[in-house]
Automatic annotation (TrEMBL):
InterPro entries found in the cross-reference section: Fringe-like_glycosylTrfase (IPR003378)
Naturally occurring in which organism (per UniProt): Penaeus vannamei
Protein name listed in UniProt: Putative beta-1,3-glucosyltransferase isoform X1
Origin: domain of life: Eukaryota
Residue intervals passing through the bilayer: none
Membrane topology annotation: Single-pass membrane protein; Single-pass type II membrane protein
Residue span(s) of domain Fringe-like glycosyltransferase: 34-114, 180-383
């Protein structure tokens, strides 16, 4: 049997200016380059471990002339905002791939999807990209193809025959001289007088004590809560004026800061885990970290942005640039702040660094498989939950008074529900 050859692409290098994280821009290129000389296209996460022998063995089970879509299947347990409140059929749930564990598309399927993508009548109308793996799977479904659950695509070592294994990021180890101090992270909480008594007690009871360098930025100073006014009136939505005022205020005030974390007053966040993540990066470089969303991302005038609810993290070097009115100034004070900051990042040619641990919504808005084994950093919204219990269950590494209460168990191979 002649040796089997394959081609490897690092998507962000080979297609640097494309929104490759949405998958759509890859279709035409992969079809053009490999449509005649390949049987499969396999997509891997940057932290994936590949066992080529097991991958070939897994793929050989399937007829290569068929249109096939393989991956580690996950599914929603309830209607959720991050999936546009698509109706969930609990008896026959819609399956989509956990792309941390990779996914594989047969070449016939790549060709068909390319034709559908290039045809204006079958191309999906995409304004916002929120969950790329889900939305891409919906596009595949529109071609009449459903995901096949392939159990050799794994998160950690779920079986002895994993073809692809996702390994979560490890904590960065720094020497004593280079250690990031918690005090070097300035945590800016966006709040308003309407929510002082409702939301500020929650964060003071949960994560705020872990953030010694913090400030509560509001529309008025409140001695009871120690809020700081940045001179911008509250708005019903958007908050661009307040956020840019915070960035400029911090740039002038805090010379010891290496990182700025901007969170909402209903964000739940683990400061120790955030610190461990930021230790992996250089604050002297222009870096934006958080959960990546996209607006018109697959079009020339589109852009990526860090969605605000899960927390927006900016390096000191980037804060200095964003604080310059000639670089970033809001059209109106109620312009969506996270989206407009995405425009400013695009002007500066600063990519959004996506980190899986940040979440725009509540834990129950995600399949439980996707919340393991990542170091979870944040969740957002107090709607229909007890935020103190959510924090204790998912984010608190040093629980106090939790005797008798159920805590989340560490991830194991058994955490992946079988179909």
């Amino acid at each position: 049997m002649p040796p089997q050859k394959g081609a490897v692409h690092v998507a962000t290098d080979d297609w640097e200016d494309e929104a490759v994280w949405t998958y759509y821009p890859l279709l035409e290129e992969l079809s053009r380059r490999h449509g005649k000389n390949s049987s499969w296209c396999v997509f891997l996460d940057e932290t994936s471990l590949l066992n080529l022998r097991e991958l070939l063995s897994a793929l050989q089970k399937y007829p290569k002339d068929k249109q096939l879509f393989l991956g580690r299947a996950v599914w929603d347990r309830q209607d959720t905002i991050i999936h546009h409140f698509d109706s969930v059929d609990r008896k026959k749930p819609f399956l989509y791939p956990d792309t941390r564990a990779g996914m594989a598309l047969s070449t016939p399927l790549i060709k068909r999807l390319t034709r559908r993508w290039l045809d204006a009548t079958t191309r999906p109308k995409i304004d916002f990209t929120i969950d790329a793996q889900y939305e891409f799977a919906r596009f595949v479904e529109s071609a009449g193809i459903k995901l096949t659950n392939e159990r050799t695509f794994c998160v950690e070592a779920e079986t002895e025959t994993c073809a692809v294994t996702f390994q979560p990021h490890k904590t960065c180890l720094l020497n004593q001289d280079g250690e990031l101090k918690t005090e070097e992270i300035h945590v800016a909480v966006k709040t308003c007088s309407h929510f002082h008594d409702e939301r500020l007690p929650v964060i003071k009871d949960t994560w705020l004590p872990d953030a010694p360098n913090h400030a509560l930025y509001s529309d008025r100073e409140d001695p009871e809560w120690g809020t700081v006014s940045v001179g911008v009136p509250n708005t019903e939505r958007g908050h661009c004026g307040k956020t840019l005022a915070i960035i400029r205020h911090v740039d002038d005030l805090d010379t010891s800061m290496k990182w700025l974390a901007i969170v909402d007053d209903d964000t739940l966040i683990s400061i120790p885990r955030l610190k461990s993540l930021l230790a992996c990066y250089d604050s002297d470089e222009m870096i934006a970290i958080g959960e990546r969303y996209g607006y018109m991302a697959v079009k020339r005038h589109g852009y990526d942005y860090v969605t605000g609810g899960g927390g927006m993290i900016f390096s000191r070097a980037l804060v200095e640039e964003l604080a310059d009115p000639d670089v970033c100034s809001c059209p109106t004070i109620d312009t969506p702040d996270d989206m407009f900051l995405g425009v400013c990042l695009a002007r500066l040619s600063v990519p959004v660094t996506h980190a899986e641990g940040f979440h725009q919504s509540r834990p129950m808005d995600y399949p439980p498989e996707l919340l393991q084994p990542e170091p979870l950093i944040s969740f957002h919204k107090h709607w229909m939950i007890d935020p103190r219990k959510i924090y204790a269950q998912w984010l608190d590494d040093n629980p106090k008074g939790m005797e008798g209460q159920q805590r989340r168990e560490p991830s194991t191979a058994k955490g992946h529900s079988e179909l």
